[in-house]
Amino acid sequence: MVVKNREVVNDNPNQPELNTVATYIRLINEQPNYIPPANELIENCLNIVTCLSQTVGTEDELWGLLTAVEEYLVRLITSLECPLRNDVIDAILDKFFTIISDPTSDARPAMSVILIVLDGSETEAPFGTARWLEGGPSPASLGTALACLYRWITEWNASPALSDWVLGYMKKLEENEQYDVLIEVSKDNLSRLLLAVHNPTDLRQSNAEVIFHVMASLRETTDILDKVAPNLAVVLNALVADSRQWSWQLLQNVVDITTAMVDHLRGPLLGQDLVSFNSRYHAVITCLEQHMASRSSQFLRLPAWGSQSNMAAAGGNEMAVVRKVGLLNRGTTCYVNSVMQALLATREFSNFVVLHLHNRAYWAKLAELFTKLKYSVSTKVDPDDFYVTMNSPKFNIDIQHDTSEFLGYFFELLLSYEHKMDCDHDYSKAPVIVTYRRRLPPPLTLSPNPTEEEAVVDNNQDEAVAGSSTGATANRKRARKGSSNSRKRQRTTEPPPEAPESFVDHIFGGVILSRMRCMVCNTLSTTRDVFRDLSLAFPEAKKDHIHTVQSLVDYYCSTELLTADNRYKCPACGCKRDVERRAVIEYTPRYLIIVLKNFKFDTKKLTQNKLMSPTIYSHSVTLPTVPAQTQNGYTMYAAIVHEGTSMSSGHYYTLAKTEDGWYLFNDDDVTKCNEDQIQFLRPCNTPYMLFYRRDDVDEALFPSLNEVPPNIRERVKVHNKLYIETVQKLQMTRP
């Protein structure tokens, strides 16, 4: 077993023979109560590392030796007391890195067995204290070490800790912004790594995770497909031929990640550039077309090294900060947290709040929260001060609430105080919500030559009251926010005042035009109502029918017959009649909020239960509009997801697009995600509120900290100072 090893070791007379070391280990293992003196102990450990680095043989051939080494090292680490234990581990890891970073060493993968000294739960800990990392080794040394580890991943399965150690090493390189090292070395080794996947029998799952981590992290790297192309067909064909579940999982990850590479590189291309790309990578594209990409690989949530490298190169630019800030959950405030993250992602809204409404009551608190979410030195912000100021008896932060209802209330709160100064406001008192009639813009021409029938307009058209989602007639397709009785009561009282000019309605407000045709006299009447969201119901459909957001929008605006309790008072007949109704959007909002009413009311349990209707959450939608309204295309930028089976309970989180891609904001836990992740959620995780930006609306970057008004900037600086001081005090009190 050790003949070849003896030959290699004997090439260097200064290296101890493997047989001698193996004999020593076995003797020590036979004396479980004996621990060598410290100096001898460390020297022996270093000799073991050196010998293993040049030990040639298969895992089966070396099994006996490696088992003995593991037994010896585990006994040492569990028997030694600090600080000697730490000294031994540091010495072993220092020697380990010295060897793998030496381009002349040709270190053998058997050496990875010494990683048994690391606790599996602390695989990243050595990188925080390792002297070789703190000393700032050259990029060449870091790259040589990484290349060695990649080679081992493809050759060796006998060291369970190896894959964790490689992932930990890559993470530390990322934290130290060594993206050039990661990209160049990984590109050079990607063909070898990918080819290792074609033999699933010999591939440890943890090693496969390293390979997919590398592939996904390289997905935005220029010419990366040149490294994938040579072996892609071989790998996919081999995995298809193997019918085991493990092979299917490998196949799906390879397809998903490679598809993401193609999508990213091909996405911005047009004309001849696109033709050239398709021609150059025809084999790759054809190969992928034979398989279905799920686009749900967990590895696609990883940040791409290419984009991270570009941000690191931006230096001190505040807008290049990759870190995202979450919001602490105060017990049941996920419904508020999710709304705040979606509003922050509504860039025209959040920018204007910070720059122009920072001195208005309640708006100032929102501006401060937005700025903390962008420039806090912590990764999480405590929103307690902000939530307490709302002081609403209707939305107690200790009770779970509906996000749509809360957002409607929050808009009314902001509208009520849009023209009141922050410095004059007493936040100890509950806010007073003022009920306004929505301000309707002048009507657009319904047609080039409107008929007499089209000119008949219901005199009650302006009675859309703040707090409702839409003022449109409620029926089976549109979620009812109030009853006809409530409308009658409103008509017998003094009408509320007309709303002043509102920034909220400037951003989110639209006008829906409802046309009713009396089924008796054929009189056509219209109503015009302001809306801030569209609440879309799901039509009855076959069990396997798949809805799309676009189909639900079209259903909302389609022609329907209103009968029975939904009959409408015909202005010509003077009484309620069956009517044919059709809705069309007259004014499209700059930002469109869609609420998906994917639930039904359980009359026995008195709860709103989810329907779990299969739905494709369209990234682009088009609103049916009057001919004079030409701006009607929208693109999704955020979604609030409800997790649970009943709308009266569960959990909310947000998916939102930021300057550097999509992120999942789950209270204070923020992770990178793919824009298509919304399509592959578990059945109980259903997008409830979708946020779209009209295609003609330009998105600006969030203002830099220097551009933030002084009153808000100083509060954020105080917040950061307190956080830093708290961290420093904790560090000083640690043993």
From TrEMBL:
One Pfam family named in its UniProt record: Usp38-like_N
Domain USP: 325-695
Family of this protein: Belongs to the peptidase C19 family.
This protein's name: Ubiquitin carboxyl-terminal hydrolase 35-like isoform X1
Gene Ontology annotations of biological process type: protein deubiquitination
Lineage: Eukaryota, Metazoa, Ecdysozoa, Arthropoda, Hexapoda
InterPro entries hit by this protein: Papain-like_cys_pep_sf, Peptidase_C19, Peptidase_C19_UCH, USP, Usp38-like_N
Organism in which the protein naturally occurs: Papilio xuthus (Asian swallowtail butterfly)
Biased composition, class Basic residues, residue ranges: 475-490
Gene Ontology cellular-component annotations: cytosol; nucleus
Single GO MF annotation: cysteine-type deubiquitinase activity
Location of the region described as Disordered in the Swiss-Prot/TrEMBL record: 443-501
